[in-house]
Amino acid sequence: MKKYFKIWWMMSRNSFSMVLTQKFTLSIFLVGKILRFLFFFGFLYFLLLGTKNLAGYNSTQAIFFFLTFNVVDVISQFLFREVYRFRPMIVNGDFDFVLVKPMSALFRVLMGGADVIDFLTIPPLVIVTIYISTLMNPTFQNTIYYILLILNGLIIATAFHIIILSFAIITTEIDHSVMIYRDLTSLGRLPVDIYKQPLQGFLTYFIPVGIMMTLPVRAIIGLATPSGIFLAFVVGAVAIFISLRFWKFALRKYSSASS
Amino acid sequence: MRKYWQIFKISFQEEFAYRLNFILWRVRNVFQILLTFFLWSTVFVNPNTVIFGYDRAKILSYVFGVMIVRALVFSSRAVDVSTDIAQGDLSNYLLKPVSYFKYWWTRDVSSKALNLVFAAVEFMVLYFILKPPFFFQKDIYMLITFLLSVIIAMFLYFFILFVVSAVPFWAPELGWGSQFLMLIVVVEGLSGSLFPTNVLPTNLQSLVLATPFPYLVYFPVQVYLGNVTGLDLVKGIFIGIFWTFALMFFMNWIWQKGLKVYESIGR
């Protein structure tokens, strides 16, 4: 564990150094990400000024759903940015060089390039999220549930990124699968309660956006049941188990083409 | 004219060469529509609700209208122009007896034609699944004005795209960054794709309406819905035309400057 943290620290430092050499590019992407957040936040704010509530949730709660989505989304992008760069490795056969190294190949391609831009946005985002959460006066127990369910959401996000990597080995396609994953999870910017069946069921059980992003907020509000919370952790464990099995299966299909 | 017709046909066929890419791009568009559709559907769950001047039928028609207008305005092959400049591939086109702008405009029109067909199919499928109370515009005058505003929007987007794509003349590494900031963030955020501009407070609305972005999606859809009439309609059309010409002149100016510093790096 200590060894892997050291490796992650080293790889992240290298990744940060690379991005920091192009400060202007970094600032453009940073401004873009902040603006994108502000556009949707502004829209939601003005919408709620007019409607006062959304699907039975008051304005503060609806905004908190959006912030929680961002927390899970930005942290997973910060950690798993390397996934977006995996395709050339497979197409060129450079993945061979990863496989021969005395470390987990999955760890390298999953977490080998932390994103400095997302890293810079995490602290202000977390501070705003904490501030908005205090406006809802959550109990200590519900706050603990919220934190645990956010961690569970990140575990599910990890599982999906592993599945995307595995698909990349089998199909050499990654760009669209990762973007479709992101489009689907972006449906979690708002509580999944707004969607009708069967889409709501799909977003709760198949691509469990509801468990990743909606359930933590329901827990902090005090609307989640103990059985629902338990089920969420079971889904998290099953998702990571299936993704690891799929990764092993995909590795056996790797043809080392072009190497 | 014949050579551009050939470019149109080749470009159209090329889209079919990467079928999976194209289909997945359309799937992504549907997801974006679903978010806005269900959001507004929830807000207007009571059929008698009227907010920001919209009732349930008009706001859901807005969402479906956005789907068609987006397909016509935002479908573009010219997003590859910045890569041409950054990698020096622009030189290949400069040597050929074709106008570079007309070449990409032809390719854009071909892409728009194909995307329109798919958007129409998605429209019908989603219409039958979601059964929204859709507002069908019957006034022929409004439909012609809607068509005019869409044509203005297509030119407007083309010129914005070419202005943004000129950045790599001076900074080749900023090709994707400038497109991300302008096309994915600013254009998406202010064009009315995400939300109708009149959700914003009046002063912010006036500010946004003075920029070219709402004339890409928001204004054409408002024209279709019959929400803009009389003097406001004429004013909107003129602002759209003004921005189209202003951006066309700016594009020509910036490209002339850019071609002077172009070094064909990578060739």
Question: What are the key terms here?
Answer:
heterodimer, A: 259 residues, mainly alpha, two-stranded antiparallel sheet, 12 helices, B: 267 residues, 72% helix
How does this structure look, described?
The complex is a heterodimer of chains A (259) and B (267). By secondary structure, chain A is mainly alpha-helical. Chain A has one domain (2-253). Chain A is built from twelve helices and two strands. A two-stranded antiparallel ribbon of chain A has the order 1-2. In chain A, strand 1 and strand 2 form a beta hairpin. Chain A is globular and about 60 Å long. With 267 residues, chain B is an all-alpha fold. Chain B has one domain (2-261). Chain B is built from eleven helices and no strands. Chain B has helices spanning 2-17, 19-43, 56-74, 81-86, 90-94, 100-130, 140-165, 175-190, 202-209, 218-225, 230-261.
| Low-confidence parts of chain A | none
- Please summarize the sheet with the most strands of chain B: none
**Contiguous uncertain segments of 5+ residues of chain B:** none
What would you call the structural class of chain A? mainly alpha
Strand elements of chain A, count: 2
**H/E element sequence of chain A:** HHEEHHHHHHHHHH
- Cα Rg of chain A: 19 Å
Biggest beta sheet summary of chain A:
2 strands, antiparallel
List the helices and strands and how they pair.
The complex is a heterodimer of chains A (259) and B (267).
Chain A: H1 2-20, H2 23-51, E1 53-54, E2 57-58, H3 59-80, H4 86-92, H5 95-99, H6 105-111, H7 116-134, H8 140-171, H9 175-186, H10 199-206, H11 209-221, H12 226-253
Antiparallel strand pairs in A: 1-2
Helix pairs in contact in A: 2-3, 2-7, 3-7, 3-8, 3-11, 8-11, 8-12, 11-12
Chain B: H1 2-17, H2 19-43, H3 56-74, H4 81-86, H5 90-94, H6 100-130, H7 140-165, H8 175-190, H9 202-209, H10 218-225, H11 230-261
Helix pairs in contact in B: 1-6, 2-3, 3-6, 3-7, 3-10, 7-10, 7-11
